[in-house]
Amino acid sequence: MAFNPESRLDQLWKEYSLVFNDFDDLTLARWLAQTLGQLEGRVWRLSHPLMGAYRLAAQLAHQRQVWLKRLATPPASYAESPCCRAPMLPLLSRDVRESGLICQHCNEALAPFDEIPEPLRTELEGWAAQYAPVHSVAHWDDRQRKSAGSYDQAYEKAGDEAEQLLSRVGREIMPKFLEFYPAAVWEDQDECLAVQPEDIEL
Ligand SMILES: [Zn+2]
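Above are the sequence and the zinc ion SMILES. Below is the predicted complex in structure-token form.
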């Protein structure tokens, strides 16, 4: 999720983020702390506009080390993250097996896979094992594509399966995060399979 200067979409998000540059550290810290209160108690699609705004502000706050300055107090239910000491707000991505849960403030691992609390970890392991072969269709080499007969059909089918699996994670697994975290975010798209947030019904 690093910034890609070639990407028009990344450029657009950079433009969106400019509004937060006008916030001084205290205003930014208060905005984040208050918004965390509004995020609390729910799971969020990554595509949700409020989450998009929060992530922009959070990344700027990370650059300015706002949480270390203790200018505002986040809601008490948010523990401090081990990665950057910001309040814990984990993102579940399809790469959870490799990357763990991702911190929405510093983009590092908030919890490596092996440290995800049980029984959540076992459930995510099963889900990721189902998702990986579906996702890999997008990255088949020529030989694999030829052996599939119609690659378009295989790609289409993988997209449909990804939609189902992402819908299941949003519906069934994400609510269980709330037993361990005050709020959590899940990646509701798969750009390699052309699956958009609006394709994923809950
Ligand atoms: Zn962090």
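The beta strands are 43-45, 90-92, 101-103, 109-111, 184-186.
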